[in-house]
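Obj: model holo form, ligand = zinc ion.
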Amino acid sequence: MDVDVLRKTVASLMPQVRADLERLVRVPSVSLPGFPPQHLPEAAAVVVDMLQTAGVENARITEVPDGYPAVYGELEGPTGAPTVLLYAHYDVQPPGPDEEWASPPFEPAVRDGRLYGRGAADDKSGIAIHAAAIRAFDGKLPVGIKIVIEGEEETSSHLDDAVLDNPELYQADVIVVGDIGNWKVGEPTLTTTLRGLAVCTVEVKTLRNPVHSGMFGGPAPDALMVLIRLLAGLLDENGNTAVEGIVSSTWEGLDYPEDIYRETAGLLPGTPLIGEGSVSDRLWARPSVTVIGLDAPAVEGAANALIPAARAVVSMRVPPGQDSEQARALLAAHLRASAPWGIEVNVSEGQAGPAFCAHTDGPGYAAAKRAMRDVYGKESVLMGQGGSIPLISNLAAIAPQAEIILWGAEDTAAAIHSPNESVDLAELERCILAESLLLQYLAEQGA
Ligand SMILES: [Zn+2]
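Output (holo structure tokens):
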């Protein structure tokens, strides 16, 4: 099918796409602990129905031990055609306080061409894209398709391990992860790297119990002050991560505009940026470090006492090219060495999630770039992503020959994980067309 035929077909599918997406958004499939579990199988059933209607007759729910079900399906392609694995997830983040939403989070509402609701973008839009791209071919797929829709992306995922346990299920020539977006609506973007994660907990103990700061304050080190001195050493005077030995480079793709970064991050007016290099460098090519948790007495009711023990969780984002377990060891060593006045601290190593760097010089990327060019009328730019997706690293490990393409309808205005999440419906249509063209071009190239 040529571009214009596909374009018309996709346009004709949009009322159904929107109805399906709204139906899916109405299911509050929050996967985090403490939320009603029955909505996850309910959402999975809607996904099965969407896929079957799209032509994936064998779309089915697969139970995941100790977790929420995933949805699988396969479509055979013509003999010798490449196989494409499509991934998205149906679980969502909690909505947060209702009063911060302009319309209720699980009642889809359209304003200015955007469909609002929790999960409308992350990542129910990804499911809508995959289903509609398949449907556009009306049962005559030019490539083989495997589709996996996860129910635990936003919580501890069991699928990461399932990938390692059943590698044959996930073999493909091209893997399309529809859980990302353009850096701005209408600007075609391919995400080629993900930062990894390295976490440590540091604990300081200096006294048996709290003691009167008037009677004892001075000679005795206060555990919280020790911890504060230690944590302050994580950044240098310019705000760069000070952990020695972590890869730090420059970003060659998109030059991410500071004003958009400020706006989307919600930086308060007058707050300066810290660190050196371009915004893209700092986001995608260099480490960043954050204290994400701190045990200390609350301000309310604070007593005049020396604090005997304090602890903090430190989380570092690890740039591509850096081994995350090594990064975690470097972070732990830095924390130990930063303890002041010869005080011994206890550092325990937590999570380490690998960074990812896509191979962008194969036929899969060529087809994706061509598809983007045909849809948007301009060249795509390459962007990184600040967060890690463990599943992707595992897919890269078990299918090293596969090209992994990350794209989707989660543009920077989508407010994923925040109140008033939304997806731009025109962008969603462009994403569907781009994915349909990708399938078409992969078949022509015999990737
Ligand atoms: Zn997501």
